Amino acid sequence: MAWPASFLAIFDLGGTELMLIMAAVLIFFGGEKLPDFARGLGKAIREFKKATAGIEEEFKRAMEEPPKPVAKPASAKPAAPKPAPPPAGHREAPPHEDMPDFEHGEN
C-alpha cells in the first residue's frame, strides 16, 4: 500500500510508524472490518481535501476583490434632547444670599 507523499509529510511518519499503526488497526478492527475502515478513511480524507480546497479558493477570491468602502457607523449615543422652555409667566427665584453662586464662579 503506497501512501501519497503529502499525507506522509503532514504527519511526518516513517515506515516503522506506519507498520505499527497498521498492526494496531488490524488488532482493533479485525480482518472483516478492515475494508470498511479503509473505505471510511478514504472518504474522510477526500472530504478534508475538498474542504481545504474550498477554503483556499474563498481566500483567493477575497484577495482578488477590491476592498469595499467602509460606512461610518451611526453615533453610539443619541443627541441629548433640548430642555423645554419654562412655562409662560414663570419667573426664576433670585439666588439666596447664603448660597454660593456657582454659575459665576463664586464659592
Condensed summary:
This protein is an all-alpha fold and 107 residues long.
Overall description:
With 107 residues, the protein is mainly α. Helices cover 53% and strands 0% of the residues. It is built from two helices and no strands.
Layout of secondary structure:
Elements: H1 5-11, H2 15-64
List the keywords.
single chain; 107 residues; mainly alpha
Runs in which pLDDT lies below 50 for 5 or more consecutive residues are none
Kindly state the percentage of residues in helix: 40-55%
Major sheet description: none
Instruction: List the helices and strands in order.
Output: HH
Report, as a whole number of angstroms, the end-to-end distance: 94 Å
Number of helices: 2
Name the structural class.
mainly alpha
Shape: rod-shaped
Average pLDDT over all residues: 76
- Radius of gyration, Cα only, in angstroms? 38 Å
**Proportion of residues in extended strands:** under 5%
Tally of DSSP β-strands: 0
